[in-house]
Write a structure and sequence with these properties.
Oligomer: single chain
Number of helices: 3
CATH topology of the largest domain: Chitinase A, domain 3
Shape: elongated
CATH superfamily of the largest domain: Transcription elongation factor, GreA/GreB, C-terminal domain
Helix content: 25-40%
Largest sheet: 5 strands, mixed
Distance between the termini: 29 Å
Length: 158
């Protein structure tokens, strides 16, 4: 990956917190587990040793991934934005033109997307259809199930 990756302030902080946890908490625990397993002797048939080494490999890989993503982050604070156009970080209320169902989503970075929190990735079909539109505009979302037309009801920056 090259170039900057958009991320909200909250998403950036969560990633920094995970990195700190993995380096200062997980890494020493795993190192201790490897040392303890080594003390049991024959490493070729030592399941604890192999499990700890696997955990270490996963943790170190995740640390490298987090460091890379944080280095490429372009932090965007939605609270500093305004207007009625949909942009990265916006919280958007959309109304299904057919069913009149209303949904509210915040458009966030790829690593921040969480359907339980109504946070959708900037690369999702819904977000791509909404970006650049304004309150009152219609956005057509194409999916394997067909097309859905939404009206943009509100745009907030929180």
């Amino acid at each position: 990956m090259s170039g900057k990756v958009p991320m909200t302030v909250v998403g950036y902080q969560r990633m920094k917190d995970e990195l700190k946890h993995r380096k200062s908490i997980e890494r020493p625990i795993i190192t201790a587990a490897i040392e303890e397993a080594r003390a049991h002797g024959d490493l070729s048939e030592n399941a604890e040793y192999h499990a700890a080494k696997e955990r270490q490999s996963f943790n170190e890989g995740r640390i490298m991934e987090l460091e890379s993503k944080l280095a490429q982050a372009e932090i965007i604070d939605p609270t500093t934005l305004s207007g009625n156009r949909v942009v990265f970080g916006a919280t958007v209320t959309i109304i299904d033109a057919e069913t009149e169902d209303e949904r509210t989503y915040q458009i966030v970075g790829v690593d921040e997307a969480d359907s339980k929190e109504n946070k959708i990735s900037v690369t999702s079909p819904v977000a791509r259809a909404l970006i650049g539109k304004s309150v009152g505009d219609e956005a057509t979302v194409r999916s394997p199930k067909g097309e859905t037309v939404y009206e943009i009801g509100a745009v907030h920056f929180r």
